[in-house]
Amino acid sequence: MAGLASVIGLLHPGEMGSAVGATLVAGGSRVxxxxxxxxxxxxxxxxxxxxEDAGTLERLARRAEVIVSVAPPxxxxxxxxxxxxxxxxxxxxxxxAVSPETAREIGRIVERGGxxxxxxxxxxxxxxxxxxxRIYLSGAEAARAALLFAAGPVNAVALDGPVxxxxxxxxxFAGWNKGMQALLMAIRALAAAEGVDQALLAxxxxxxxxxxxxxxxxxxDNARKAWRFVGEMEQIARTFAQAGLPTGFHxxxxxxxxxxxxxxxxxxxxxVEEAIAALLKRVTREGS
Amino acid sequence: MAGLASVIGLLHPGEMGSAVGATLVAGGSRVxxxxxxxxxxxxxxxxxxxxEDAGTLERLARRAEVIVSVAPPxxxxxxxxxxxxxxxxxxxxxxxAVSPETAREIGRIVERGGxxxxxxxxxxxxxxxxxxxRIYLSGAEAARAALLFAAGPVNAVALDGPVxxxxxxxxxFAGWNKGMQALLMAIRALAAAEGVDQALLAxxxxxxxxxxxxxxxxxxDNARKAWRFVGEMEQIARTFAQAGLPTGFHxxxxxxxxxxxxxxxxxxxxxVEEAIAALLKRVTREGS
Lengths: 288, 288
What we know:
- Two copies of one chain form a homodimer.
- By secondary structure, chain A is an alpha/beta fold.
- Chain A has two domains: 155 residues, Rossmann fold (3-Layer(aba) Sandwich), CATH 3.40.50; 112 residues, N-(1-d-carboxylethyl)-l-norvaline Dehydrogenase, domain 2, CATH 1.10.1040.
- Chain A contains twelve helices and eight strands.
- Chain A has an eight-stranded mixed sheet, sandwiched between helices.
């Protein structure tokens, strides 16, 4: 990692990972991925953005100077362990939605394997619109790691903070954004359960006119991604606990997303009525 | 209660109660209050809006055809019990922020004493600006009770629903409004605890530009009222539980407001920094 360009291993080019991969490729790096055990859609995305298939994690770790981990929160520690087991001695960038404590744990794992560590958190939608998303990096080599992202579309921001700061920022941002959206969906479900849904919408139109549409957009935009947010809410609750703050907001948000997890991979988002029925754990009639 | 005007007992003309009282007076009713055990500020408000002092609850209950209860959530059941013990046989309107279940319990209490019951919930700020607040009423006599409020400034809406609907609507509205604000304050505290407060504000300015100012307004507007919201959050959590929804959002919101309860009756709202320190249960230096 003398200059900007490096050989970088990307684990894994999923939806957000491919936006990160496209950024690293745009910056002039050779970006490897490991197809072993990954699905057809991941391969398609990897080829589309110009990644090289190293085949296995082992070959990827041997060739890469930098590894960037973009995984669901529950898998983040396992990815780090697998890389550490291969005695990877380059720079490991964890870009996952995990608590600062989990980030520090991941750092210790990869450092014991011989790597250096940068903590990161990605904020913004998983698309390749320039400036849509930012990766916040922290730790001693944050500024150097940020150079790899200089070309965008994902922008990098090196925080003036230790390992944990990048993850903490992600937890705070998502804690509001996804916590608030889970609460709003739960409120719609509560009003429906009590038979006052229409009255609530009418009151909102008077006093909070943007909320009716926002509540429906929230259901539309989040139901199919809800399965991914369950682990993230757990990490946020842990972050709250570490700071001596109550965990209930995100324990509850996790439960809301868990009840919507069945919409993973559905062709279209559920209607508001269907989502509310799922949140209330009511069985909807077939075809309804 | 043959026409619009009645003799109405108001328990009690506090901040929100006096907006309700002014409405009832404007509608042509004689409105009584009971000064026994109430403070100087309540007396001042009562006189200002033209209420007649019945002295004791007993004399109030003997003379009133209608009693309207506007009390903190934790006191709502006690007010109903005291009225029922006096064998009040008129119409009892509970306008408190309680769960539908608590509203139904209050209904049973006053009905056992011989009264008729209307369930209500007030939404909106405690001021006398016309149309600022609405009282939602439910139960068999909701439409008749609504007539008493016809002159405003507090508007009445009779819901087409049973006892419980008025309270449920209040719980849903406040569950979003006050739950969301508690979450936002907790997020500011989390970011401060992790040293990423400035970074979070900078990210919000990019992706959610209205949130930095909203988070500060939330602290400014709510800290001194927080003590009143603790019981309300408990009622909302119970409402969630009854609907089979997770209680954590409002368990946590209750804890947030509890940590701010010390700002009751302070001359000025706390600064953002002070409020954050209270949320993190950190002791701030004197004079800081």
